[in-house]
Design a protein that fits this description.
Number of helices: 3
Order of helices and strands: HHEHEE
Helix content: 55-70%
Largest sheet: 3 strands, antiparallel
Shape: rod-shaped
Structural class: mainly alpha
Radius of gyration: 26 Å
Number of strands: 3
Strand order of the largest sheet: 1-2-3
Strand content: 5-15%
């Protein structure tokens, strides 16, 4: 009886090693998937925050230049197609304030990552919707 167990011992060891390697590989994949999801979420949150700062500053600048009626007409022109700004230009604009940390975008294409801002009626400073295109390797 012990002789039969000793003959199967290398097979059991090989199967155990294969199982450990397989579990390690699955764990690695799960960890990377969770990490990518967290990175994407952080990038979306940061892009949302930056685009708010950009648009609200852009709005204030236009409000100084245009009357209320002209401003509404101007902004309504962007309500369908949106005001599109890529990450590279967003960073250039906001760098003048020296207040941002962009490390969350280290794995992103700066020209391919974009925010689209859609002003909505009544076209006030906070009256807009946003959508994002993240072009990142998370």
């Amino acid at each position: 009886m012990f002789k039969k167990l000793n003959e199967k011992k290398p097979l059991v060891i090989a199967a155990s090693i294969l199982l450990v390697v397989l579990l390690g590989f699955v764990g690695f994949l799960v960890f990377n998937k969770i990490n990518a999801s967290v990175s994407k979420s952080k990038a979306e949150d940061k892009l949302s925050e930056l685009s708010d700062k950009f648009y609200e500053h852009y709005y204030d600048t236009k409000k100084e230049e245009l009357s209320d009626e002209e401003l509404k007409k101007f902004l309504s022109g962007y309500s369908k197609d949106g005001l599109i700004i890529n990450l590279e230009n967003l960073q250039l604009f906001l760098d003048s304030y020296n207040i941002e940390d962009y490390s969350v975008f280290d794995k992103c294409d700066k020209s391919g990552t974009k925010v689209m801002i859609f002003p909505v009626d009544p076209y006030g400073k906070k009256d807009y919707k946003k959508s994002f295109t993240l072009n990142c390797n998370f």
